[in-house]
Amino acid sequence: MPPYTADTADNVLEHVTSLYDSVRTVRPLVLHLTNIVVVNDQANITLALGGSPIMSLAAEEQELLSPMVSALLLNIGTIHRAQRETMLIAAKQAGRHGKPIILDPVGVALGGYRAEVVQDILDNSIPAVITGNAAEIGYLARLDASAKGVDSIADLKDPVRVVRDLAKQTGSVIVLHGEIDYVSDGETVVQLSNGHVDLSKVTGTGCSTGSAIATFVGVALDGIDLNPRGLEKSAADERNIRRRIFAGSVAGVLATSLAGELAVEASANHGTASFKAAWIGSIGRLTGEIIKSRAKVVIRYDQ
Ligand SMILES: Nc1ncnc2c1ncn2[C@@H]1O[C@H](COP(=O)(O)OP(=O)(O)OP(=O)(O)O)[C@@H](O)[C@H]1O
Ligand SMILES: Cc1ncsc1CCO
User: Fold this and answer.
1) What is the pLDDT of residue 2?
2) What does the DSSP 8-state code read for residue 4?
3) Residues 115, 118, 124, 125: what is their CA dihedral angle, to the nearest 10 degrees?
């Protein structure tokens, strides 16, 4: 990746396009522990981007898989007791082998069991990225505030502040997706205004964004151990790693939203099934050049 120089939209886009240019060479292996609704789309999207998906259900194979993979996606969409245990084993293995975790806390705003599982994962790991919709990110922001005894709750009327504060508090890059997407590493907040309303009419576009983020974070961290044993990471190393995770996250969000725009043009209003097929096909045709010419990226400096 080019060296990081400044918080400008052009600089972010330069990093993102370099990830698109190298994904097919790196071919990151993305380990998915995910839900039963979207799993097939997630495999196809990872492949279409140039990555390699592996889906796993067995606790017994996490130790074998972890050293091989570029990134681990934990998506709790249809979580159950056995998968919760497998996720914790996988998260601990990822920590041991210095692999990035991408956490998608699907439905956590329901509270109850899902919230318990997310808390469990956060007690045992620091995800590189937490990605969710407004309800999910809003719920996590509120949890965090109440855990610290803060009276006021996070207000999604101010998404810029919510993502930046949650990123600072968790140590994770936060992705808030929806009509407008926001990504923050705790310092920079980027606003992404691509996409199309039809993306919200098929299930799993948010979950698949998690796969795209995991794919590009895997490329961005290629050859980097997040937890090198016996070595202190300098502040510059930490910053470099966070920048890479941030760029991977922006690249993943743009994959979903830009392919959505291309799919509307390609599927000519033949309904949601053909839109979804066109969307997966369009993801496979994205290039650094398309990203550069179509991405609507704004850096937000709001307080
Ligand atoms: N109204 C919209 N306009 C533009 N883009 C949108 C719109 N709605 C969703 N998107 C795009 O689709 C992606 C998925 O967002 P969405 O909020 O629909 O996910 P979700 O509801 O969490 O999905 P899932 O079905 O996986 O749970 C977003 O990253 C965004 O880019
Ligand atoms: C519909 C649904 N239910 C659990 S996961 C999922 C996919 C979208 O998040």
Assistant:
1) 62
2) P
3) -150
Which residue has its alpha carbon closest to ligand 1 atom 7? 179
Pocket of ligand 1 (CB under 6 A): 106, 133, 177-179, 181, 195-197, 199-200, 203-207, 209, 253, 256-257, 260
Average pLDDT in the chain: 92
Pairing assessment for the beta strands 129-132 and 297-300 based on DSSP bridges:
unpaired
Residue 117, both tokens: 């599982």
pTM: 0.95
What would the two tokens of residue 207 be? 């979950």
pLDDT value for 161: 93
The ipTM, to two decimals, is: 0.96
Mean pLDDT over 227-246 rounds to 89
- Please give the CATH superfamily to which domain 9-300 belongs: Ribokinase (3.40.1190.20)
Measured CA to CA, the distance from residue 108 to residue 152 in angstroms comes to 20
Cβ neighbours around 155 below 10 Å, total: 12
Task: Confirm or reject: Cβ of 132 under 6 Å from ligand 2.
Answer: no
